[in-house]
Design goal:
Blueprint lengths: L11 E2 L31 H11 L13 H16 L2 E9 L5 E9 L3 E6 L5 E6 L2 E6 L4 E6 L6 H4 L5 H4 E8 L3 E8 L7 E7 L5 E8 L5 E10 L22
Length: 249
């Protein structure tokens, strides 16, 4: 399994000085037109903490960087990576503020579709069909669903990724072996901040991302054992009713 560095210690940093984060209201869960809304459920505090990096509003401090030529080229490289990305699968490790890692398998199919199956004992699935993102708890038989456009992931998985056009860049770093870019969506309907950590060698490749919620709590997701050579069935990204969904260890 690949190991991922959390920070580029020897990096040249272009990060801005940020004012204090301001809490923003949580998104309103969205349902498909004509479909029955998911039954309301009060998730446990542990579940809320675990999933805050996926569906909760995150800290949205001040303005972005005024990019120089070198910074602009770094962001363009990140654009190119995501625009060339097709089907992807691999392993992930998610670590929240309590420092308890959770593992599982993930799949991505652009545009807009991804699926994270958590290994036991969590029995949770996080899945996007390109329109909605659902967090499903198979033990509690409940679901939290939001529009994908209300999350920071829409910027990275859309058909035409252009972070210079659609995002406010708040941090750019480059070291010998790593690129780091942190960004917020410019759309007021999709507040969110996400930091991308990408390996440069042997080729540019996403290895980790970090989201920070309005309380300043971080959710880190590290990915490894990446496979881009397998065509993934679109049916894997269909959001099913919780009682019908199956858990993949």
């Amino acid at each position: 399994m690949l190991t991922v560095s959390g920070h580029a210690g020897d990096a040249t940093s272009f990060a801005e000085d940020q004012p204090a984060a301001t809490a923003v209201p949580a998104p309103v869960p969205a349902t498909r037109p004509g479909a029955e809304a998911p039954a309301p459920a009060a998730p446990s505090s542990a579940a809320t903490d675990q999933n805050s990096g996926w569906n909760a509003e995150v800290a949205t401090p001040g303005g972005g960087l005024v990019l120089n030529d070198a910074q602009t080229e770094i962001v363009k490289k990140v654009n190119g990576y995501f625009n060339a990305l097709g089907d992807l699968k691999g392993d992930f490790v998610q670590t929240t503020a309590d420092n308890k890692p959770m593992k599982g398998k993930f799949m991505v199919k652009r545009p807009g579709r991804f699926r994270f199956d958590y290994a036991r004992p969590s029995k949770q699935i996080i899945i996007s069909d390109g329109e909605y993102l659902a967090i499903q708890d198979l033990d509690l038989n409940n679901e939290d669903r939001v529009a994908l456009d209300q999350t920071p992931f829409r910027l990275l998985l859309r058909k035409d990724v252009d972070l210079l056009r659609d995002a406010t860049i708040v941090e750019v770093q480059e070291s010998d072996d790593q690129l780091v870019v942190a960004l917020r969506d410019k759309s007021p309907d999709a507040p969110g901040k996400i930091k991308l950590l990408m390996a440069k060698s042997p080729q540019l490749e996403l290895r980790e991302w970090l989201t920070t919620d309005a309380q300043g709590l971080d959710t880190r997701v590290q990915i490894s054992e990446l496979n881009t050579g397998e065509k993934l069935d679109a049916s894997l990204f269909k959001i099913q009713a919780v009682t019908l969904n199956k858990f993949h260890p």
